[in-house]
## 1
Amino acid sequence: MQSFAYAAPETVEQAIAVLQEHSQAGKPVQILAGGTDLLVQIRVVDSSARTIVDVKKLPETNRLEIGTSEIYVGAAIPAAALTANAELKARLPGLVEAIDLIGSTQIQGRASLGGNLCNASPAGDTIPALLVNRGRCQIAGPDGTRELPVEEFVTGVGTNALGEGELLLGISFPTPATGTADAYLRFIPRSEMDIAVAGAGVSVTLDENGTCTTARVAIGAVAPTALLVTAAADALMGTPLDDEALAAAGAACTAASSPISDKRGTADYRRKVVAVLCKRAAAIAAERARGSY
Ligand SMILES: Cc1cc2nc3c(=O)[nH]c(=O)nc-3n(C[C@H](O)[C@H](O)[C@H](O)COP(=O)(O)OP(=O)(O)OC[C@H]3O[C@@H](n4cnc5c(N)ncnc54)[C@H](O)[C@@H]3O)c2cc1C
């Protein structure tokens, strides 16, 4: 059995110092938040020794702020704390429903939004919801802090844009205005505890007449990374989100997807399912947006 060094810094500076010291010395080092991906990977994929840097004790990764113009969600806050927050749920219901889909009650007690994003699984449930809500990654590193849109953060299957010595502090979002709402849906072959066959997140803004003035659509589990589908958003904007517009948005999601076939479903099946999920998520987001007036 391998032995692992463990550090639990209490400041961002300390965390970066440990990460950088190891990176510069060529010693393996890895960040731990809830560990619900990492510990499985250590057991099943790569059990080689490394230093684990726990980021759960940092104030910046545990901060949750819901302001009038901006929402900040610390990267290491457990899913259970986020789904229990009524204000966050009222502001970003689609993001919270995506978080709520992660694992079981036990997993929810540890799993974090930051971990889901950094793990960069094509089927990570929160990533489409982060994309449609214009999430911006707040990153700390040896050269200070930087900000990166979520669409530039995930770079491939299991890879992200973090450099040596960097960590994700949290994700910020513009606070949705009246008339704006989101929704996220996924399909899995069983009722829970499975990986998405396809997922779709939608955010829409409706004016007082019910016309869609802004839309963002993102799909998951149907390409190497979750994708923003601009053509689907274009199909929704300027419409009352009627059946014709929803069908066009769904078709755009099918066209944008490049899924694999596996035991959960064929590529052809995934292309069809993602269109259905887009239509349904858009209808739910629209209903929520109408209810916000
Ligand atoms: C039984 C089970 C069911 C699951 N169900 C789902 C599901 O339905 N949907 C879904 O999307 N996922 C699911 N997952 C996967 C996992 O729970 C989620 O991806 C979770 O959000 C990961 O968060 P974490 O805090 O546990 O991450 P960790 O395991 O701690 O970290 C994951 C990765 O991100 C890195 N990392 C974490 N935090 C940071 C940070 N702040 N800065 C930089 N790097 C960081 C780690 O180094 C690691 O590479 C499931 C896992 C299990 C075991």
## 2
Amino acid sequence: MSRLRVAIAGAGIGRQHAAAFAKLPERFDVVALCDPDVERRRAVAAEFSIRGTTSSFEDLLANDAVDVVDICTPQSLHFGQAMAALAAGRHVICEKPVVGSLADCDALMAAERASQRRVMPVFQYRFGVGLQKLLHLVERGVTGKHFLSTAETTWRRGPAYFATAWRGNLAQAMGGCLLTQAIHAHDALTITLGDVRKVYAATATRVNPVQTEDCAAATLTFADGSLATLAVTLGSADDTSRLRFHFEQLTAQSSLAPYTMTAEPWTWIPANDAAASRIADALADFRPRAEGFAGQFERFHDALTNGGAMPVTLADARTSLELLTALYHSAATGSAVELPIAAMHPAYRGWS
Ligand SMILES: NC(=O)c1ccc[n+]([C@@H]2O[C@H](COP(=O)([O-])OP(=O)(O)OC[C@H]3O[C@@H](n4cnc5c(N)ncnc54)[C@H](O)[C@@H]3O)[C@@H](O)[C@H]2O)c1
């Protein structure tokens, strides 16, 4: 099996990426780590025996012994760093949100097409076995018509979290709890339920003295006319996530584990005995695979080495960004927003 040589930029969540690569030693070798914060860089390099360290992203790109640049820096840096990494001939893994507008996403997609290299956005929650089972059932048509689903991301973030300068700063964070915390739950809804056609949202900043929203409520209307509600706050007394899907033949509820709600245990409530039997039959050929960051990186390696489909694409990130654009525009204007969002839409180049 060919080993991909990885350079990680950013040693915050980048530490968890390093831990995931370390679980896949036949597939990945992390050869370099970049972070201007010398203490963080040294600590993560020592923990995972990463040989090459630097404070400069440009040094990382100049390193010919790198196949994949894994961007784990604050979000306002992602677009420039991803474009530069592609231009340097590297594959790119990039943390969410990949960029801060549909226009930047389209530019990055064009650069990827021209480059012969691949860009994989990170949406590691997608690979939780509970959510994968639900997708398996939806694909096999046993869930029936979708009625309504709910996504709750109710976490607690206070002064310690916002002590990091870029967080809560609109120019650098590009958004608040919708963009940073709830993006995974909302991605889980849209990959399961399909295209969103209309959004109505309200946001508020009530928990912390920051520029970005820390509470949000929204309704979504999907292409088939079914509905979802989103509820997000950073002022919960504990960290809880919950996805609850209501289909004609099945109600499915995620676990409440805040950062692994897509993993099992899920609660499965078939509408009747016949539905229970069809669901059990459909799950007979379900095979669980690795979850989280390691699950996504393992699939990334498979796609690059076998030429298959990427587990997450820039088109997926674009769907997420289009929903965010609609949510923020709706909250700013107090009106419903219809999707898709065209290039002449006032929020196509950014929502803030
Ligand atoms: N997928 C997830 O579940 C998840 C979880 C947390 C954060 N994130 C995302 O990961 C990104 C980083 O978030 P974080 O919480 O780790 O932030 P952080 O501020 O804790 O860490 C970012 C690190 O990047 C470093 N950095 C800054 N400029 C750099 C540069 N030019 N080159 C290299 N390193 C640089 C900083 O010094 C810092 O150590 C954000 O986009 C965030 O939204 C994703």
